[in-house]
Design a protein that fits this description.
By secondary structure, this protein is α+β, with helices and mostly antiparallel strands. Helices cover 32% and strands 29% of the residues. The longest helix is centred in the last third of the chain and has 19 residues.
Length: 290
């Protein structure tokens, strides 16, 4: 008599599955850096991870919930059992955003519609990666441009740049900008992430930083140049020096980390900047706001 086939079903992760879950995430890390980062920094008392098991009992997909963000990692599966837990889950905790590889987000969006939840805004991005040192940036930018690490005395200028970046690139259309939260975000980036700033004529006019570190990759974000100084090659120079520094640092530590970022599909100028220093498009990414 043949063994009864195991029914696929979403379940909360068990302690004995931690190692297997991390291996599964790492194998998909190139396309799910945010999910990996949220998983590694999650608070088990507040955050949740669900796993989907295949017929052999191995983890075939995951969904990570951290700080009101739902991040599916479906590992290429197009047909998954309905995540019925979402119905009760949405009644108990808020979900601000659903984000991940576009294919995975689309599957989850369809599942959420079936229980009455509809996204109010969807933003699509190109997921870009580089695994070698960047090139073609050293001569970019106007004369006198200085790329350097920020100092504490730069904080007010950094706060101003971060506020402008968040309002232009991050906030959903229906959200209200909160200056106090933005300043806290800036202080957190300054103390916990790696960052460079662009200075011209004694004035800070641009910034770039990491916003996630996962198993084998850095994620870059917060790239911003003041509108009055765009089109001069500043972003290209700043991004090139930053990526070169991260690459050198990781190789010196023996880790050889790759670099990832995502850029709005509606921003072809930014995409060209990254492509010119060696980034390539590796997939589509989506953030759906609820």
């Amino acid at each position: 008599m043949s063994k009864r086939r195991r029914q696929q079903r979403w379940r909360k992760i068990k302690k004995h599955q931690i190692t297997e879950a991390e291996l599964r995430l790492q194998s998909n890390e190139r396309w799910c850096m945010n999910a990996c980062s949220r998983y590694l920094t999650r608070n088990p008392a507040k955050d949740t991870v669900w796993t989907l098991l295949d017929e052999s009992g191995a983890i075939s997909a995951l969904i990570v919930y951290v700080k009101q963000n739902l991040l599916p990692v479906l590992c290429g599966q197009e047909h998954i059992p309905p995540p019925h837990f979402l119905r009760g889950f949405f009644g108990a905790v808020p979900v601000h955003a659903l984000q991940g590889r576009m294919e995975d987000v689309g599957i989850m969006e369809a599942a959420m519609k079936k229980i009455g939840f509809y996204a109010v805004e969807k933003i699509d991005y190109d997921l870009m990666c580089i695994d070698e040192p960047p090139s073609g940036f050293s001569a970019s930018g106007p004369a006198g441009l200085v790329i350097r690490k920020p100092q504490f005395s730069d904080m007010d200028s950094l706060v101003s740049l971060q506020a402008a970046y968040e309002q232009e690139e991050v906030l959903p259309a229906r959200s209200t900008f909160n200056p106090a939260v933005s300043r806290l975000n800036t202080e957190k980036l300054f103390t916990k992430e790696q960052m460079l700033v662009a200075e011209l004529g004694g004035q800070l006019i641009g910034k770039i930083n990491t916003n996630a570190v996962t198993f084998t990759r850095y994620q870059v974000g917060g790239v911003y140049v003041h509108p009055d100084y765009r089109g001069l090659g500043i972003a290209r120079r700043m991004a090139g020096e930053f990526i070169a520094g991260l690459t050198t640092q990781s190789r010196e530590l023996g880790t050889a980390r790759g670099i990832s970022l995502f850029v709005k599909k509606s921003n072809p100028c930014a995409r060209r900047v990254y492509q010119r220093i060696g980034f390539s498009i590796t997939g589509d990414y989506r953030i759906s706001y609820y």
